[in-house]
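Incident log, support desk, overnight shift.

02:14 A customer reports that sequence design results differ from what the structure should imply. Their input is reproduced verbatim below. On-call engineer (initials T.W.) acknowledged and began investigating.
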């Protein structure tokens, strides 16, 4: 056994850890994020050779005018992480995102607690960066956390194995393994990986849980981190004597409500124009192309045609692809079209297909499919919904003939709406004679910000859009 001040060589046993804390355990304190680690905590265990404290930051480009909340911490105070490992999960009104470790090190500070709102650029926590070339030692027993100082009892701390060259491969784990590690509060460095490059698999975790080492580690008492007091939430009161139930709003529903009110009542004077459109030519074109697209793994939808036609119509009326400022109208060169995607009772998201003006129909259909699949599987990131310059709402898929006004997706100046496709009896003049025919028709509308656009530009854009659709392939 080693005593204070004694030199030790690599491989020498420094001491033994018991599953039971000694009776006369000294008292430590968990300190605030701005404070320092108490002297007794500094002496309680050797520390890895470190370089600096590294901020875990929410990148400024991850949010666009929305707030995020801390949904979960994937790593506990004192845990060792590798650069790129998920550390914290954030939730916005529309997506969840994982923030990863910016460097190898030990998590020292949780600056934000679960449920707390954060903004772009916020510091979420701090890592003690570790010199990977130095021998790895046990982390400090008591470390910084955002909370008022409270007394806690020391407990034996499991020794973290030395960092090896295989560590990065070992930490490339799937969601099943990550969930097992979190559920059983396991340290991945204590588990022998049988996968490629030492990667830990599901079977490795299950085997470890049955091992004596796991039983011994389960007896180790973790240092508690005091939870930030949560303000009591007052439940909404029923508005009448009629039997009812209250369904709390989700973050997404609250954001949608705020955006709709702000867009319609506080920002843009909305005006809507409606045209009728014959879909016959693109129906025939889709029949001819659909099989080839399917063989390439791409589903050719009518919405892909609408994106292409909108980008072409903007060549005639560029002002539709713009943003209104008090002193000028900013007209964009890139056509980045957001597509309203319904998530049932969970709300609505608008993933963006970028630079549509440079794409052919196959490229548009491919990008559109990727974005809508991400949306419906809950895998959209904030970046997937940034930078839109125009929006299309294909509300006809749910049976709607037309809707007015469709609320503009701020800060854009227009939104296109496509109604239900249905067969209608129309009168056509053929060889000088009026004849009744059945044609596939739908209504198409454009809701505009009347500060930026007038009826002339609105109707010119719709006329050009309808012309492109009705003459597709000719």
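02:41 Re-run completed on a clean worker. Output:
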């Amino acid at each position: 056994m080693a005593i204070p001040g004694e030199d030790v060589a690599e491989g020498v046993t420094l001491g033994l850890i018991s599953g039971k804390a000694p009776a006369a355990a000294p008292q430590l304190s968990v300190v605030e994020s701005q404070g320092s680690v108490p002297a007794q905590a500094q002496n309680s265990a050797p520390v890895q050779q470190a370089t600096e404290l590294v901020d875990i930051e929410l990148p400024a480009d991850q949010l666009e005018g929305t707030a995020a909340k801390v949904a979960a911490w994937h790593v506990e105070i004192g845990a060792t992480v590798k650069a790129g490992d998920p550390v914290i999960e954030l939730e916005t009104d529309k997506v969840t995102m994982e923030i990863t470790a910016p460097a190898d090190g030990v998590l020292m500070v949780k600056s934000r607690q679960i449920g707390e709102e954060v903004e772009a650029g916020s510091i979420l926590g701090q890592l003690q960066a570790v010199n990977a070339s130095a021998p790895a030692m046990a982390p400090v027993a008591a470390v910084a956390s955002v909370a008022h100082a409270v007394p806690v009892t020391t407990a034996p701390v499991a020794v973290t194995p030395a960092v090896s060259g295989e560590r990065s491969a070992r930490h490339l784990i799937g969601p099943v393994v990550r969930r097992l590690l979190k559920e059983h509060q396991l340290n991945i460095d204590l588990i022998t990986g049988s996968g490629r490059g030492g990667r830990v698999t599901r079977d490795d975790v299950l085997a470890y849980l049955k091992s004596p080492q796991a039983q011994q580690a389960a007896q180790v008492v973790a240092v508690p981190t005091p939870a930030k007091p949560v303000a009591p939430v007052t439940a909404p009161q029923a508005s009448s004597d009629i039997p009812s139930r209250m369904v709390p709003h989700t973050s997404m529903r609250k954001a949608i409500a705020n955006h709709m009110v702000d867009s319609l009542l506080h920002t843009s004077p909305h005006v809507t124009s409606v045209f009728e459109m014959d879909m016959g030519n693109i129906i025939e074109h889709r029949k001819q192309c659909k099989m080839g697209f399917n063989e390439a793994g791409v589903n050719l939808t009518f919405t892909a045609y609408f994106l292409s036609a909108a980008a072409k119509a903007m060549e005639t009326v560029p002002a539709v692809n713009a943003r209104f400022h008090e002193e000028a109208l900013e007209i964009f060169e890139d056509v980045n079209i957001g597509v309203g995607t319904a998530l049932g009772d969970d709300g609505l998201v608008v993933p963006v297909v970028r630079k549509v003006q440079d794409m052919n129909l196959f490229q548009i259909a491919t990008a559109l499919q990727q974005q809508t699949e991400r949306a419906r599987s809950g895998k959209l990131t904030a970046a997937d919904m940034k930078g839109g310059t125009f929006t299309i709402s294909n509300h006809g898929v749910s049976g709607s003939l037309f809707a007015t006004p469709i609320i503009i997706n701020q800060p854009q100046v227009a939104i296109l709406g496509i109604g239900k496709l249905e067969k209608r009896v129309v009168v056509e003049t053929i060889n000088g004679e009026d004849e009744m025919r059945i044609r596939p028709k739908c209504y198409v509308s454009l809701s505009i910000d009347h500060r930026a656009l007038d009826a002339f530009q609105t109707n010119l854009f719709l006329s050009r859009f309808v012309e492109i659709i009705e003459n597709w392939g000719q």
